[in-house]
Amino acid sequence: MALTSTVQNAIATAQTVVKSSHSRAAVAFAATALALMWGIHPSPSLAQVYEVPPAVGPQSITDPATTTPSPPAQTAPARRSVNSETSASIEMDVSTRSVAVTSAFTGTAITVFGAIAGGDPTRLADASYDIVIIVEGTFTPLVVRRKSNVVGLWINTRSMQFETIPSYYTIASTRPLGKIAPRRVLRSNRIGFDHVQMRQSPKESRRIGPNEKAEFREAVIRVKQREGLYKEDNSGVTFIGKSLFRSEVRLPANVPVGPLATRAYLFKDGRLIAKSDQLVTMRREGFERFVHDLAFDRPLLYGLLTVFLAISAGLIASATFRSRRG
To answer: Is 249 exposed, middle or buried (0-12, 13-18, 19+ CB in 10 A)?
Structure first.
């Protein structure tokens, strides 16, 4: 009680010295905070709120004796503890951001590595998290044709044009996708061969039925797998310790040149928790780049140069054989 009366006397003294209502409010607020810090319940006079004078016109100071005390501030509700499972995140990077493609390119390998940040330590200990890594190449158009036996001859009878499909698609995971997440989750994130983004033109969609579309999709995946451009490894992601992971993705020699989107997904109990992505750039270099740029930027010059080289090679070979005969 003695400390309370002391604080009240200090405010009364400050009010006689400070004429600005702003300063008086600040003094009252500081005194109230000081009283609360010492565990003292301030009297109504200490909890009074001073009105701020208008910005224009003479300042008006409200008499504390006639001011109705404001109701006590409501205590903020306790903050809920954040679920460590949903707060988990994934950090991912690649061993190289740029791959050089030369005339001697025979394929290469990139290492995808990262760590699980946050999360439940018990879940990390019992390996309850799953990781899926997808490397997706640039999107290109594609025409798929079906051959049929007509009077003993195999000819093209049906075709379907895809506006865009991934030129390269690789999946690496800690275990089979069917055990990681349900189909609806995989479909919404375009994970798996069954959910690869293959877009058809509106005309093709109206012309071909759903069953035949599925057959053409399966044909595309089957051909790409045979070429080594679509791959799946159900044990391609390995954990190093409790939270570190790595995966090695091999790029074949026939991989189309272009950007490669690398994505890592973190799953737990069939739910997508977090994801991260990086971009790997493939660039032509050396003589390979010179020929490519010449063919696409100056096609006429490229054609004339090709014809000249072919004629020159033929003349040189002919002269060589004549000299040997003579």
So the answer is: buried
